[in-house]
Specification:
This protein is mostly helical. The protein has a domain of 103 residues. Helix content is 78%, strand content 0%. The two termini are 48 Å apart.
Length: 547
């Protein structure tokens, strides 16, 4: 009996060790995949470019409709604005067809995108505009699917019990309609049943169903990413954190390989790594997710990540500070020891300079000193590098967006169009003109203002409350923010360096400094406390996202 018990314990320990190594190897693979993100995105852009070339040369309107559907399919998880652009184009094109099924198909796709990005009212309005009785069998399945998910999200996020009850009922109604129509062995059916099992807390069957779905989908697809994320939720419900982490990693890897920018796994993984004390990876992952959300341009994802990012960044900064402090202490100790060694070596040299043994010992000591000095130099270099990283990690995304305004997709499309049309004079005029840059800079300001005010809608009001009554900022009719407000909006986001603010907003450092001083002089509170009070504006409550 004792031997059997010993064998069981031994096998358990071996199993745990092997699993731990699996998770560690997956984290290494995730790091490698993140590093190669550009490679995967280039493949996505190439596929999109091929579709667009085919679309530009196609004359048949029905074929153009199907080509745009393919482009929309590629853009939906990749870039929201572009997906909406082609959806609107296809709605206009399909409105010319006598058969309404074409326009209904695009409307259903649009409703799904609106729902997944938090625009629930617009999604419901779009679904209500569709006559269910006119849909073919395939399109009707899609209609029930998007209706089901829209009402599920409304049920999940609604704070009102009465509304929650109504949305929950509608969610169940559409789900039951859809399940009654599907093949019980189809992937579509199993994906819904898996969630039903989880909602009923039947985690065993939910995991088993999910495993079947994982077998049917390879990593590097949007489908695999969603299935793996769902499996992570299953293990979360069981309290199995290591298994949850494993499937969050797999979902993140798959999202990157598929160039999916609208994702939840990377953010959830960053939060888990943060709670487990892996601050460096948590910091890297949350910034990676932030870049994806900004590229995709989903307000829902952006807000979610913006709530987590400052927490992880603060903890990471604290950890870096602790390491720097320990390193500084070590350097002081090493320096003292070096002086002691130097003094001792000199003393030995003075005492035994005429002896061969003494000379050898002295040479050894000198060699050691050289090595110590080299190590000190390397240590100083590492400190410098760490400080540079700490200075730049918060503003990397905004600086990149500011510096690359002239490479925006619209400008490229315009240039390509002029080249194709052989309008050389117009092309030369366009490339020499500064109007486009000015427009794009204005667009950058607008997008920043819009995104920021969606995150902090009461920022202007709260900011004015900090100023004297006669110094309150009154915006022009077409303004969301002015220069003064943008500067302090960036400060609210944690960017306090005037040079970095100047680079993002395309002003001189002197101008930024003058604005900050001038504004502080307008405050009705202690001017030294002004920026601290600005940082307190607009605290938001985080909610777990639904993928």
């Amino acid at each position: 009996m004792n031997k059997v018990l010993f064998l069981i314990i031994l096998l358990s320990q071996i199993s745990q060790f092997a699993f731990g190594n699996t998770v560690d190897s997956l984290l290494t693979e995730l790091d490698r995949t993140m590093h190669n993100r550009v490679e995967y995105d280039l493949k996505k852009e190439k596929a999109l470019s091929n579709f667009k070339k085919e679309l530009s040369s196609e004359k048949n309107e029905l074929k153009k409709y199907f080509l745009m559907n393919e482009i929309i399919k590629e853009y939906i998880p990749y870039q929201l604005d572009s997906a909406l652009f082609y959806m609107n184009k296809n709605i206009y094109l399909s409105s010319k067809f006598s058969d309404k099924k074409y326009i209904d198909k695009v409307k259903i796709d649009l409703a799904g995108v609106l729902s997944s990005t938090g625009n629930y009212k617009e999604s419901v309005d779009m679904l209500n505009s569709i006559d269910e009785s006119n849909l073919d069998e395939v399109t009707k399945n899609q209609f029930y699917h998007e209706s089901m998910w829209t009402y599920y999200r409304l049920f999940f996020y609604s704070p009102l019990p009465d509304s929650k009850k109504i949305y929950g009922q509608l969610y169940n109604d559409y789900m039951n309609k859809l399940l009654a129509r599907l093949d019980k062995n189809s992937t579509f059916y199993l994906s819904i049943i898996e969630r039903v099992y989880r909602e009923k807390n039947d985690i065993k069957n939910s995991i088993a169903t999910n495993n079947e779905l994982l077998k049917r989908n390879g990593i590097g697809t949007r489908e695999f990413s969603m299935i793996a994320f769902s499996q992570a939720l299953n293990y979360r419900n069981l309290g199995d954190r290591e298994s949850e982490k494993k499937y969050l990693i797999l979902s993140s890897i798959s999202d990157i390989k598929a160039s999916v920018k609208d994702n939840a796994a990377t953010t959830e993984l960053a939060l888990m790594l943060f709670r487990q004390g892996d601050l460096e990876r948590a910091h890297h992952n949350i910034n990676f997710a932030f870049e994806d959300a900004a590229f995709f341009n989903s307000k829902l994802r952006f807000v979610s990540i913006s709530n987590i990012l400052p927490i992880i960044d603060k903890a990471y900064e604290t950890e870096i500070h602790k390491k720097n402090r320990k390193l500084q202490i070590s350097l002081i100790v090493i320096s003292i020891l070096s002086l002691v060694v130097l003094f001792t070596s000199f003393y030995i040299y003075k005492q035994y300079r005429n002896l061969v043994i003494a000379r050898k010992k002295l040479e050894e000591v000198n060699n050691k000193l050289k090595q110590i000095n080299k190590e000190l130099s390397d240590s100083y270099d590492k400190i410098s590098e760490i400080n540079q990283v700490k200075e730049h990690y918060i503003v990397n995304l905004l600086i990149n967006n500011s510096e690359n305004i002239d490479t925006l997709d619209v400008y490229g499309k315009t240039v390509v169009k002029l080249i194709i049309s052989k309008k050389t004079e117009e092309l030369l005029k366009l490339t020499k003109s500064k109007d486009f840059l000015d427009k794009e800079l204005a667009k950058f300001y607008y997008n920043f203002d819009n995104i920021f005010l969606n995150i902090y809608p009461d920022f202007v009001e709260k900011f004015n409350n900090l100023l004297s009554d006669e110094e309150r900022i009154i915006l022009k009719r077409d303004e969301l923010l002015n220069t003064e407000l943008r500067i302090f909006a960036l400060i609210r986001l944690g960017i306090n360096d005037s040079s970095k603010i100047a680079k993002i907003l395309r002003y001189s450092v002197t101008t930024i400094y003058n604005y900050r001083v001038k504004t502080k002089n307008k405050t009705k509170i202690n001017r030294d406390e002004f920026e601290k009070e600005v940082m307190k504006i607009g605290s938001l409550t985080n909610k777990t996202q639904v993928e």
